[in-house]
Amino acid sequence: MKLDQKYFVPFLAVAAILTAILITFFTISSQKGQRQVFRDFVMQQDTLRYERMPLLNEEDSLSVSDFKGKFVILDFWATWSNFSEDVHFQISELARQHADTLQVIAGVVEDRQEKIDAYIERHDYPFHFVEGTTVFNKYDIPGMPTEIVYNPEGEIIDVFFGYPDSTQFDSLRILLNNGR
Q: Which residues are in the Thioredoxin domain (predicted)?
């Protein structure tokens, strides 16, 4: 079978569009699969809560396990992530409303120090800012930003990836309001 030359360019255009659609579909499917594998893995083991992360611009470090008896949001973020600032705004509202029952550990990932310092200075977030790159890479966390939510007993109760939709933190708000 021979393809007429007048149909060659349209044929290539259609083939390119179909290829782009397939690549997009399989990329999204792969990301969802990675996220589910990570969620299952991290919820079945408890080593992440004991990982020590150095506080930014300090000599000390901390871990989720340091805040037993409180809800903890372990947030992996970066100034280069378009969604981190939106997530931080929502989390900071929760942290201010529930200052006695919620702690936030904001682990910055692969970012330049001057950008981090400017970000922290520009925002008055009630977070513990830590260096999170090592832990992020060690656990092969499949997205930015990612929030891992712990209950007061130190158990993971939810994991959020990417941009926060309007309902993402609703269950956490209910838990915090009920004090459970």
A: 17-180
Residue 99, Ramachandran bin (φ over 0: left; ψ between -120 and 50: alpha; else beta): alpha
Per the structure, the count of domains in the chain is: 1
Please choose, from the candidates 140, 132, 137, the residue with its C-alpha nearest in 3D space to the C-alpha of residue 78: 132
Cα 108 to chain centroid, rounded? 10
Residue the block writes with tokens 């083991």 = 45
pLDDT in tens, 12-41: 888 888 887 777 766 555 555 665 666 666
Alpha-helical regions (H) of the chain: 5-44, 84-97, 113-122, 133-138, 170-178
Nearest by Cα to 162 from 139, 144, 136: 144
9 in any annotated domain: no
Alpha-carbon gap, residue 180 to 172, rounded angstroms? 10
Residue 8, in any domain of the structure: no
8 Å CB contact between 83 and 145: yes
Residue 55: domain span: 45-178
In sign, the C-alpha dihedral spanning 53, 171, 41, 162 is negative
pLDDT tens column, 114-156: 999 999 999 989 999 999 999 999 988 888 888 989 999 988 8
CATH value at residue 76: 3.40.30.10
